[in-house]
Every structure is written in C-alpha cells, then in structure tokens.
Specification:
Order of helices and strands: HHEHHEHEHHHHHHEHEEHEH
Mean pLDDT: 92
Shape: elongated
Strand order of the largest sheet: 2-1-3-5-7
Low-confidence stretches: none
Number of strands: 7
Number of helices: 14
C-alpha cells in the first residue's frame, strides 16, 4: 500500500513539475516571440508614438484600411479592433495603452448596437490576453471579472490556461510563434480584409430600444477626459431595414458621435449584414480621412 501511495505522489509531483515547465515555456514564447496576435502586437508598441489608433470590434478590424490612411495623410496609424469587442474590451485596451506607455495623438472608437451589451466581452481578446494573466493587474482583473468561477484555475493551475484555450493558444500556435510565421492581419497593421459580396436577403434588424447608459462608455469618456486623450466616437456602415432610428438614439447617448451607419447602400460593398468587404472598407476609410480630418 505504501508503495502505491508513493507511486501516486511521485506521479502527481511529476505532473506538476511538467505542467509548470510547459507553462513557463509557453508563456515565455508568447512574451518574446515576434507578434502573431493583436494583443501580442499591443505589448510590443511600448514607448512607440502613433498618430491615430482605431479601437472597436470586427467593424473596425474589417473596416479600417491603415495603409490607405498612412499613405494619404503621412501619419502613422494602427488598427486595434478585436473581433466581437464590446465597450469593456475597449476600456481595457485604453488602459493597457497607458500601461505599456504607448503615446498617440488621437484615438477613434467605434460604437454601435453593442452599447446595449454591457455585460458581454470579446472571447477573441480574452483568449489572446490569457497567456499574460500574470503580467499586470489590468489583465488579471479583466479575466477575473469575466470568468470569476474559472479565474483561480487560469491564474494558479500550471498550464491550465493553455489547455483550455487550445487551439487559440495551443501547441500549433506556439510552434507558429517559434518559427515566426507571419499573419496577414499584422502585415496590414491590424486590418483584416473581407472579400466577397453580400448575397443574403435577411437584413439586419436593430434593437427597438437603447439602454439608458453603458457603464463602460462612461468609464471610457471619463478616462479620456482625465488623461486629456483626444477621442472620436463613430459608427461603421451596416445593412439595416428596421429600427435604424436606433443610431439617432445612440447619438443622444454618445458625445459627438459620427454616424456613418448608412454611408454605404449597395450590396457590392458588404460582406454580410454587419461587415463591409475590402472594396467597401476602402471607400469608408477615405470617408473617415475626409470627414474626421485625419
């Protein structure tokens, strides 16, 4: 019986040591490798000066062509839109920019019907940030707030965060980091183009009501005022048939909102209800440059 107990204890110890070793190696690879994800890229912007930063959801990620902005304005820019981002995700990015000592002249934040989704967050940003849970309190608190029941496992169980977020942070992605496999998104300075034409007859119906407030919008606005950040809020184009008045209501909630929701009408500029394709993004980016005086 004693031999069996000793065997189990040795096996448990071996597993703990192995998991701790793998956790250390994976974390170090994500910390020091050439960035593949936007969150990795954000960390490497430390001490950089960028003229224009674009924050928001996929409707930034797939809609703002940074190369066009830099070519036409002779200013530096970067697209930090994360798929499915909500206002609380944007608030985290704003704080991390300060934490990583990234300076910029203007931040342009995309806001839309996600104003109603105060409690939701981006799984994409969440899992990209997960390997860095111990890096600073901002990331730690963000993960704890959104996954309170699992936080202790992410934080204290060695290697658990990589197992649970596989394939996003698993072996294949680690190997891609090691061999420095580039991603098209980062080659395009954060812009992820969509190709193809909208062919779905089921168009977008916006919410009939708008929330009284969004705590994260208030936090963002107060944060920008406190830190003297030049912030611009705007909406991106989308295909809508009902309740388009939602954006009028949103304009009364969001300070100086630039509403481009109805800018593009033709299906040839859309990939789906929510997103414009590369051709539409090129037109929209040119409008941003002109209307927002970039």
């Amino acid at each position: 019986m004693k031999k069996f107990v000793y065997y189990i204890l040795k096996l448990a110890l071996l597993l703990i040591i192995s998991a701790s070793f793998l956790d250390f190696c994976y974390t170090k690879i994500y910390e020091v490798s050439v960035p593949r994800s936007k969150f990795q890229k954000l960390r490497t912007l430390k001490h950089e000066k960028i003229d224009y930063l674009f924050l928001g959801s996929s409707r930034v990620d797939n809609s703002v062509v940074i190369n066009s902005i830099e070519k036409k304005t002779n200013k530096s820019a970067y697209n930090l839109g994360f798929q499915a981002s909500k206002l609380q995700d944007i608030y985290l990015i704003l704080q991390l920019l300060k934490k990583y000592e990234v300076s910029y002249d203007k931040v342009l934040i995309q806001v839309d019907f996600a104003f109603n989704n105060e409690l939701e967050f981006s799984n994409v940003l969440f899992f990209e940030a997960l390997p860095f849970i111990k890096e600073n309190k901002l990331i730690e608190d963000y993960i704890k707030h959104n996954k309170p029941n699992d936080f202790w496992k992410y934080r204290y169980l060695p290697f658990y965060k990589f197992i649970i977020s596989n394939p996003k942070n698993g072996f294949r992605e680690v190997v891609a980091n090691v061999i420095k496999t580039p991603t098209r998104t980062l080659q395009n300075k954060g812009y992820s183009p969509l190709y193809g034409e909208f062919k779905n007859n089921k168009l977008l119906k916006l919410p009939s009501k708008i929330n009284n407030k969004n705590i994260y919008y208030n936090l963002i606005l107060n944060y920008c005022i406190k830190n003297k950040i030049n912030v611009v809020f705007y909406t991106a184009p989308c295909k809508i048939t009902k309740n388009s008045v939602y954006f009028d209501k949103l304009s009364r909630k969001v300070t100086n909102l630039n509403n481009f929701s109805g800018l593009l009408k033709d299906d040839i500029y859309f990939y789906d209800n929510f997103h414009i394709n590369n051709e539409g993004a090129t037109i929209f980016t040119n409008v941003l440059i002109e209307k927002l005086k970039l």
